[in-house]
């Protein structure tokens, strides 16, 4: 892979010129995706998504169940109407147990259920010391809604989209972890660069002040210039203290987010003194991203693109539900089987009799005072709103990617320019120092060179930060790695 290398290290105060081992951006991203709380939360959400989809698939498979009441004992007095119309309360003591074994299967295209069952019932009368068995050795039945809304047919379209959406959401969540870690990485890196600048300026200003004291004795510098250099020393001390505080806070935030641990230490390093020295990621990919390809990859990979289809289907589903639930609703229930009864268990299975039943229950709204039409029209308006919203979201979706691609290309140029400016600023400052020592440069011009040197160094780091933020934002928006030309999985 072609890469170009940026030279942004000057002659003074370079980050990384230290004996401490530096941590790279890739190492921080790997830590964040492996052990950060955000990454763990995303993986937990994915497991929830997997089990929810398995639960959906299971409801379309045969279901075997055993239900009943065992025992079902009663001892009490019950009301008994006598032949002459009077009422007497007679004692009862019985156990009426029942067991039912059934195998059922849903019919997704029609929304019905077909089932096969075996049933056994035993009645014990403890007062009369009798028992009686009743059973269904075999039975088959059907329950079929007619003219009703069928949620199973719509679930078969929507639930797979929800599952795919959840899978892509996991990848997006992990890419968001990378983007957040990148932001925190550069917050710390910028603060460390500012700390290095502050340390270098303190040393240089102190050295120049001492030189100025000697030059004052020789009459080569005014008292005003000496005071200006002394003020620079004090300001450098103040900037150094502030930079240390900022770097400590930024380091703590990064360590907390990625769950950073010392070697041999199982606890996260929070508040510990061990510094986290960062390397400057000055090697950037030489990318040329085609906007149309980025949009196509985003449409194929993003959870939002899948959600566009799901939201339209849900709107269509709600409209059909409103139509069918406010019209004629009927349920056909039918069954056939064998049944028998007797004082002994074996009697249930000896020459059982046919058992048939069929029923049709229906509801037909006749006068609703416009309520049914209002519900349907509301659902229709919601569908149109969903279509318009999705269309607008698609345009925003594409515009966001277009903006990010063009921004990435522009920031790549900014990195090159600011790196060159940083190199020039460092060289110019070194020349200004040498000229001041030779009494060939004023204190004011030296201060200007110092400010420009510091600004160039910060601009170079900030340009790198903006580039890498744009790079990982584009990965997040497309779920595609344009550096390796493959989908992010």
Describe it.
With 489 residues, the protein is of the alpha+beta class. The chain has two domains: 21-61 and 148-194 and 241-260 and 279-327 and 368-488, Outer membrane efflux proteins (OEP), CATH 1.20.1600; 91-146 and 328-364, no CATH class. 56% of the residues lie in helices and 21% in strands. The chain has eight helices and eleven strands. α3 (151-217) runs antiparallel to α8 (443-478) and α7 packs antiparallel against α8 (443-478). The longest helix has 67 residues, at 151-217. It is elongated and about 140 Å long.
Q: What is the class of the largest domain in the CATH system? A: Mainly Alpha
The number of helical segments is 8
Count every beta strand, where a strand is a DSSP E run of 2 or more residues: 11
Helix content: 55-70%
State the shape. Answer: elongated
Instruction: Give the H and E element order.
Output: EHHEEEEEHHEHHEEHHEE
Query: Might you state the CATH topology name of the largest domain?
Result: Outer membrane efflux proteins (OEP)
- Domain module count: 2
What's the Cα radius of gyration?
Answer: 40 Å
Low-confidence stretches: 1-20, 263-273
- Global mean pLDDT: 86
């Amino acid at each position: 892979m072609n890469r170009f290398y940026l030279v942004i290290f000057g002659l003074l105060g370079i980050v990384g010129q230290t004996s401490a081992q530096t941590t790279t951006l890739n190492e921080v991203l790997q830590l964040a995706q492996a052990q950060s709380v955000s990454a763990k939360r995303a993986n937990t959400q994915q497991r929830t998504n997997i089990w929810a989809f398995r639960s959906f698939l299971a409801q379309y498979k045969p279901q075997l169940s055993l239900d009943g009441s065992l025992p079902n004992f009663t001892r009490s007095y019950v009301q008994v109407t006598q032949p002459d119309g009077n009422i007497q309360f007679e004692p009862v003591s019985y156990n009426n147990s029942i067991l039912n074994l059934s195998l059922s299967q849903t019919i997704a295209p029609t929304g019905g259920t077909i089932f096969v069952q075996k049933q056994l019932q035993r009645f014990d009368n403890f007062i009369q010391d009798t028992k009686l068995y009743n059973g269904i050795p075999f039975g088959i039945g059907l329950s079929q809604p007619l003219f009703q809304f069928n949620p199973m047919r719509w679930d078969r379209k929507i639930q797979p989209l929800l599952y795919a959406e959840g899978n892509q959401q996991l990848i997006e969540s992990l890419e968001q972890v990378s983007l957040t870690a990148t932001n925190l990485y550069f917050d710390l890196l910028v603060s460390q660069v500012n700390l290095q600048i502050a340390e270098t300026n303190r040393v240089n200003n102190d050295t120049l002040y001492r030189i100025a004291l000697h030059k004052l004795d020789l009459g080569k510098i005014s008292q005003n210039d000496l005071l200006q250099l002394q003020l620079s020393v004090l300001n450098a001390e103040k900037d150094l203290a502030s930079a240390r505080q900022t770097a400590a806070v930024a380091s703590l935030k990064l360590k907390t987010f990625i769950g950073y641990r010392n070697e041999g230490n199982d606890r996260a390093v929070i508040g510990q003194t061990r510094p986290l020295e960062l390397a400057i990621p000055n090697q950037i990919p030489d990318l040329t991203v085609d906007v149309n390809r980025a949009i196509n990859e985003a449409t194929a990979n993003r959870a939002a693109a899948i959600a566009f289809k799901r939201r339209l289907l849900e709107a269509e589903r709600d409209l059909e539900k409103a139509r069918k639930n406010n019209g004629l609703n009927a349920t056909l229930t039918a069954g056939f089987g064998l049944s028998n009864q007797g004082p002994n268990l074996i009697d249930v299975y000896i020459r059982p009799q046919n058992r048939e039943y069929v029923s049709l229950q229906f509801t037909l709204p006749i006068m609703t005072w416009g309520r049914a039409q209002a519900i349907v029209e509301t659902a229709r308006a919601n569908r149109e709103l969903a279509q318009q919203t999705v269309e607008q979201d698609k345009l925003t979706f594409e515009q966001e990617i277009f903006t990010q691609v063009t921004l990435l290309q522009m920031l790549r140029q900014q990195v090159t320019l600011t790196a060159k400016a940083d190199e020039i600023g460092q060289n110019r400052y070194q020349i200004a120092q040498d000229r001041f020592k030779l009494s060939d440069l004023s204190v004011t011009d030296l201060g200007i060179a110092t400010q420009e040197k510091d600004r160039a160094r910060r601009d170079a780091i900030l340009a790198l930060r903006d580039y890498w933020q744009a790079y990982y934002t584009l990965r997040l928006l497309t779920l595609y790695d344009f550096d390796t030309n493959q989908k992010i999985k």
